[in-house]
Amino acid sequence: MKRIAVFPGSFDPFTLGHESIVRRALDLFDEVIVAVGKNSTKANMFSIEQRSAWIEEVFKVEHRVKVEWYEGLTIAYCKSKNARYILRGLRTSADFGFERGIAQVNKAMDTSIETIFILALPEHSAISSTIIRDIIKNGGNVAQFVPIAVNFK
Ligand code: ADP
């Protein structure tokens, strides 16, 4: 059976940290679906179309990476895609505390789905979409933190 992992997130915007997690996950899985969350309660800086288009551009020659939108429960979305793995990145112990709760509750709801964590590379540990958005709002240059395909011009 094909090993499919879903990498869910807001990706507002997609960063070098996110890219690294997806590329490293390709060693473990046959296919990685980057699932861009349509979260109506979260005020996003970039539209879901824009966020997805950037990610598609980053992986345009990597056919094992798919980019999709989703809403609702991540485990329900995984089921609909025949994905048995949820992929998440960990930067800090704060990430771990938050992610542990979600992963344990997801496991309780559906024992067939496993959450797999990949540690951020040290050079990506400080990169977050929130910080990137703040820099952009204040007119700074974020080129060193995002893939080349993610350009704000
Ligand atoms: P969410 O709103 O679900 O937290 P994000 O887009 O912020 O969505 O993050 C998606 C996933 O990527 C999360 O698992 C997060 O921990 C991980 N992540 C975010 N930034 C980095 C980074 N710099 N390095 C590695 N993983 C990261």
Task: Please provide a written account of the structure.
The chain is 35% helix and 20% strand. It is α/β, with parallel strands linked by helices and 153 residues long. The protein has a single domain (4-137), classed as Rossmann fold (3-Layer(aba) Sandwich). It has a 5-stranded parallel sheet with strand order 3-2-1-4-5, sandwiched between helices. The longest helix has 17 residues, at 93-109. Bound molecules: adenosine-5'-diphosphate.
What composes the largest sheet? Answer: 5 strands, parallel
Based on CA inertia axes, which overall geometry fits? globular
Overall pLDDT metric:
96
Bound ligands, named by name, code or SMILES: adenosine-5'-diphosphate
Secondary structure tally, helices: 5
Q: What's the CATH H-level homologous superfamily?
A: HUPs
How many structurally independent domains?
1
Structural class: alpha/beta
In short:
This protein is α/β, with parallel strands linked by helices and 153 residues long. The protein has a single domain (4-137), classed as 3-Layer(aba) Sandwich (Rossmann fold).
